Amino acid sequence: MWGGRFASGPAEIMEEINASIGFDKRLAPQDIRGSLAHVAMLGKAGILPAEDVAKIEAGLKTVQSEIDAGTFEFRRELEDIHMSVESRLREIVGPTAGRLHTARSRNDQVATDMRLWVRDTLDALDAQAADLQQAMAELALKHAGTVMPGFTHLQSAQPVTFGHHLLAYVEMLNRDRGRFRDARARLNECPLGAAALAGTSFPIDRHATAASLGFDRPTANSLDSVADRDFALEALSAAAIAAVHLSRFAEEIVVWTSAQFGFVKLSDRFTTGSSIMPQKRNPDAAELVRAKSGRVIGALSGLLIVMKGLPLAYSKDMQEDKEGTFDALQTLSLCLAAMAGMVRDLEPVPDVLKAAAGSGYATATDLADWLVRELGLPFRDAHHVTGRLVGEASSRGIGLEALPLAVMQAEEPRITDAVFAVLGVENSVGSRTSYGGTAPDNVRAQAEGWLKRLASETA
Ligand code: ARG
After folding, report:
1. 8 Å CB contact between 140 and 447
2. Which residues form the Fumarate lyase N-terminal domain (predicted)?
3. Cβ contacts of residue 143 below 8 Å, gap of 6+?
4. Is 128 exposed, middle or buried (CB count within 10 Å of its CB: 0-12, 13-18, 19+)?
5. Burial class (CB in 10 A: 0-12, 13-18, 19+), 129
6. Is position 267 annotated as part of the catalytic site?
C-alpha cells in the first residue's frame, strides 16, 4: 500500500507484531459499511465520478459476500482488515479501488469501525440484560413470600424474601443498562472524514456519512476523532460493573447450592459432576461467571493503561484496544446468557430457607422494635434487653420464640405473650412494609411493576 517509499518488505517479526488482521477481521462488516457510506458521499460531493462509485460499491458488496460465505482469504501480510478489504477490492474492480481511500485514512476508518462494533454490541448487551431481568422478575414474583435469611457480613441478619433478594439484582441490572445506554449515546458521533488527524482538503460531507451510518452527528475535532477511545473505555467500564454484579450473584449461587446451605437447587443443565466423587454436583457455570468478571475488569485496566501516555493524535498503541474490547464484551454476553439460563432453572428450597431464616436470632430486631412500639422503650434500651434475651436463649441452645414468657419478664416485666407474634419469620417479613422493604406485598408489587415495564419496552 505504501510501496512507493519502501525498497524492502517488513521483517518477519515486524509483520507478526504489526498485524491486527487475526483479530480485527471481525470488523469486516463495519469496515465495508463505512466504505459504502464513504464512497456514496464521495460520489454525491462530486469527488468521484458516478461510474467509479458504482464499481466500488459493487466490488465492496462482492467482498462482503465472500466474507459471509467464508471464502475470503485473510492474509497476514495485508496487516489489517482495512487493507485486506481494499486489496481484495482491487483484485475485483482493478485500479479504481485506489480511489476509495480519497479523503480518509485508516485512522478515522478504524475509529469508525470500532464505534460501530461497540454500538451494536452495547445494544445486544442491553437486550440480554433485559432478558436476565425478565427471568429474575418472574422468579421473584413466584417467590415474593418465600422467606430466607438476609445477611450482613454473611451472618444471619434479618429475614427477607427470596423475591426481594432477586429484585436487588434486577435493580443493579437496570443501572447497568442505563450505563450501556449512556455510553451508546455519547459514542454516537462519527469520526469518518477526520482523515489521518487534520481533516481533508476535499469537499467531503461528514454530516452525510454520519447520518448514513446511523450516527447523530460527526465528531467536531479531527484530532480527537482519531485519538479518542473513550467509547471503548466507557463500554468496558459499564461492562466491568455489570460483570461484578453477575459475579456477586454467581458467588451466591455457589454458596447456596452447597450441601451446607442447600438454599437452592440448580438443574442438571447447569451443573457438572466429578469424575471421581459420584455425589458431586458442581455449579461450574456460576463459578465461571464469577471468574470471567476478572477478564472484563482486566480489559478495562489494560486499555486505560494503553491510553494513558499517548500524545495526540493516533499512535499504533491504539491497535491494542481491540482484543480486550472484543473479548470483554463477548465474555459479558456469554455470562449474561449463562446467568439467565441458571436463573430460569433455579429452584429455591422453601423449607430450608425458612428454617435458616429463623436461625441465628434473625428476629431479634423484631423483638427490639416490639419493645419500642408496644412498651415505649427507647430503641437503645430495647436493643439492650433484646441482647440479654438472645444471650439467654443462646445459652439454653434454643430460639427466641422458645424462650418462656417468665424468662422474658424477668428481663422486662411488661412483656406479654403478644410478643411471640413478631418472633416468627413470616411476621417479621410481613411487617417490613416501608417503601423498598421486604414485605411480600411490596415484593409482589415491585415484581409486577418490573414485568410490566419490561413488557412495555419490547412492545
Ligand atoms: N490496524 C490499525 C489499528 O487498529 C489501523 C490504523 C492504522 N493506522 C496507521 N496509521 N498505521 O489501529
Report:
1. yes
2. 6-298
3. 161, 162, 163, 166, 348, 350
4. buried
5. buried
6. no
Residues in the chain: 459
Give tens-digit pLDDT for 221-263.
999 999 999 999 999 999 999 999 999 999 999 999 999 999 9
Read off the C-alpha cell for 50: 458516478
Taking each continuous run of H as one helix and of E as one strand, the counts in the chain are 18, 6
If you write DSSP's letter for every residue of 273-306 in order, what string do you get?
Answer: --SS-TT--B-HHHHHHHHHHHHHHHHHHHHHHH
442 lines ligand 1 (CB under 6 A): no
Q: In 143-229, which residue ranges form alpha helices assigned H by DSSP?
A: 162-187, 206-212, 222-227
Q: What is the pLDDT of residue 2?
A: 65
Which grid cell is 367?
423483638
> Looking at the whole model, is its pTM more than 0.85?
yes
pLDDT at 6 (0 to 100): 81
Give the type of residue at 387: G
Instruction: Please confirm, yes or no, whether 274 is among the known catalytic residues.
Output: yes
Could you tell me if the CB of 110 is within 6 A of ligand 1?
yes
Best mutation site among 225, 319, 326 for ligand 1, i.e. most ligand atoms within 8 A of its Cβ? 319
